[in-house]
Amino acid sequence: MPRLPLINQMQLTAAQKDMYEEILRVRGQVRGPFAIWLNSPELGSLALQIQDWFQKKSALDDRIVELTILIMARKANAQFAWAVHEQRALKYGIEHTIIEAIKMRCTPKFNSDIELLTYDLVNELNETKTLSSVSYQKAIKHFSVQALVELVSLTGFYVMVAMILNSFEADTPTGEQLLF
Fold first, then answer.
1. Is the separation of the CB atoms in 30 and 24 below 8 Å?
2. Cα dist. 66→6, 27, 28, 104 in Å?
């Protein structure tokens, strides 16, 4: 059960109303982390811009963005992020068997070297908060510097998203718990 009450549009401040309308314009509905960030509209607006940027302008392929988000959602047991991004990952070509392996906390069998490298890098970042020299050299061979900066940033951004979702106990869109 969420820790914050449902949004009452009639009680929103002017700044919250502006952010609410921005979320509707970009996402089509106000839920998940953005419903929580309505309580800090300037921060929420910035977070919305960052998330939107990753999905529309990043040098990273959509598959890599969604794979990274799923790995981080699973690491944090972020139910809402998993529920939303599991479907997006399928849409962008991440195989169901890979998604299920991540969900079950197993190492997936990847057919793509870049997906395997992404999996390894995101896990290393999550565990050590940095990349070893060996991992960095592998990453630079497969990603541009820009894409690697964005991958590390996306990983960190989803630490923040997961903390918001989990701390305020955001419900999944269906209310169903998907991660155990």
1. yes
2. 28, 16, 19, 17
Do 99 and 155 lie in one domain? The reply is yes
The predicted model scores a pTM of: 0.93
The answer to whether 7 and 35 have CB atoms below 8 angstroms apart is yes
Query: How far is the first Cα of the chain from the last one, in angstroms, to the nearest whole number?
Result: 16
For the chain, the domain total comes to 2
Structure tokens at 121: 């890098």
What is the extent of the structural domain holding 134? Answer: 62-167
pLDDT in tens, 68-114: 999 999 999 999 999 999 999 999 999 999 999 999 999 999 999 99
CB 158 within 8 A of CB 77: no
Measured distance CA(48)–CA(96) in Å, rounded: 28
Residue given tokens 């070297």 in the structure block: 113
At position 61, the amino acid (one-letter code) is D
Cα 82 to chain centroid, rounded? 8
Residues with Cβ within 8 Å of residue 99, at least 6 apart in sequence: 70, 86, 89, 90
Residues 115 and 37 occupy one common structural domain: no
